[in-house]
Known about the structure:
Blueprint: E1 2-8, E2 15-19, E3 22-26, H1 35-48, E4 55-59, E5 65-70
Parallel strand pairs: 1-3
Antiparallel strand pairs: 1-5, 2-3, 4-5
Amino acid sequence: xxxxxxxxxxxRRNLIKQDAEGIKVYLxxxxxxxxxxxxxxxxxxxxxxxxxxxxxxxxxxxxxxxxIKIEGI
Length: 73
């Protein structure tokens, strides 16, 4: 499964919201040294109940807009 995600960093808590624009993931991690990407994988793995190794950021490693691939769904 592929997802298009917009990431908002330094939020109060980790949260996933779906609205008319798509999926937004709020992360309390800063966008420094890949911490936000790690937090994104953690949040998605917990939400979709898959292992972290099944989630891959295909596009947008240094962008707010990312394309995520989740295997096993």
